[in-house]
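Researcher: Go.
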Amino acid sequence: MDYLGISLFCGTCQHWTGERRVEVSEKRVYTPRHATIGTCICPTGHWKGRLKPGESNCPHWQRWDQVPD
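Model: Structure:
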């Protein structure tokens, strides 16, 4: 999957642990097709410790610190 770095999806969230890489020059985040699910480690959300697809979203989203401003 391919996401804009500022998209409010789990794939671009600081709390999502799925496999991904950031393309700094394009400000995009890529997740491999085989790794589209990750664990949510949000300290305040009800998803903590649960698996979520990268294309999911939630109100506790925080931009992944690897994505440039």
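Model: The chain is about 0% helix and 20% strand.
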